[in-house]
Design brief:
The protein has 254 residues and is an alpha+beta fold. The protein has four helices and ten strands; from the N terminus they run αααββββββββββα. It has a single domain (1-72, 116-254), classed as Immunoglobulin-like. It has a five-stranded mixed β-sheet with strand order 3-2-1-5-8. A five-stranded mixed β-sheet has the order 4-10-9-6-7. A hairpin with a 2-residue loop joins strand 1 and strand 2. The two termini are 40 Å apart.
Length: 254
């Protein structure tokens, strides 16, 4: 990263709302969860990390014990043991138990993420090569959202993530997202919201999110869709109900 880009990046971090999250250089973990779905995904991830760590430690310990206990110097005459009933039962039941522990919360999270109840508003995202179009069918609003080019970025704006028209939603409201495409496969993905829904031509897929804190949350197309695949970002701007109502009036009057 050049010094100029580094300064721009630092300015952008300072200028972003505290509750919004963006990708960071050398980032390893998830972005901060901003929706109930992402909170569930993060909790599931932490549980799985504990389980796989315990499995890795157990297997490594057993291998080390076997190498030590059955080394050639201690066992010049190899054992002729062919099986051990209790051991066979144990290493069959233990994986089954682990799968049950993983499977139940996984299914609960899948059903939670797919079940949309009492949506306060609906937004339809339509993928194009290479930009997004957003429809608010209940409000009769329709607009395109294109990435802001590097030369047009203002101080504090994020390269490859800023758009000229962001999705605008009120804080604390349940939003139904309908996703489709008019040309090739795209994917509507916002990491901090736990959303990644394919945009398929001729098909409507749906998901939902609810964000309690105001801010701007960024995503990108996550399905290889052509030469400008990396240049169709997503921005979700969460504002107060009053600000949202004012935005609706301005959009309807324009």
């Amino acid at each position: 990263m050049s010094s100029a880009n580094g300064i721009r990046y630092l300015i952008s971090l300072l200028s972003q709302p505290a509750c919004a999250d963006v990708p960071h250089p050398w980032q390893i973990g998830f972005q901060t969860a901003a929706s109930p779905i992402m909170e569930g995904i993060a909790e599931m991830h932490h549980m799985l990390l504990i389980i796989i760590t315990c499995i890795a430690v157990l297997v490594t310990g057993l291998l080390a014990f076997v190498l030590w206990r059955f080394r050639a110097s201690r066992n010049p005459i190899p054992s002729n043991t062919s099986h051990h009933t209790l051991l066979e039962v144990a290493w069959t039941l233990l994986p089954v138990l682990i799968l049950v522990v993983i499977g139940i919360p996984s299914l609960k999270l899948m059903f939670f993420a797919s079940k949309i109840e009492h949506a306060d508003l609906t937004v339809k995202a339509i993928g194009h090569q290479w930009y997004w179009t957003y429809d608010y069918p209940e409000e009769k609003i329709h607009f395109d959202s294109l990435m802001i080019e590097d030369k047009d970025l203002k101080p504090g704006q994020l390269r490859l993530l800023e758009v000229d028209n962001a999705i605008m939603v009120p804080a604390g409201k349940t939003v139904r997202m309908i996703v489709t495409s008019e040309d090739v496969l795209h994917s509507f993905a916002v990491p901090s919201l736990g959303i990644k829904k394919d945009a398929v031509p001729g098909r409507l897929n749906e998901t939902w999110f609810r964000i309690e804190k105001e801010g701007t949350y960024y995503g990108q197309c996550s399905e290889l869709c052509g030469v400008k695949h990396g240049f169709m970002p997503i921005a979700v701007k969460v504002v107060s109900q009053q600000h949202y109502d004012e935005w609706l009036k301005s959009k309807k009057s324009s």
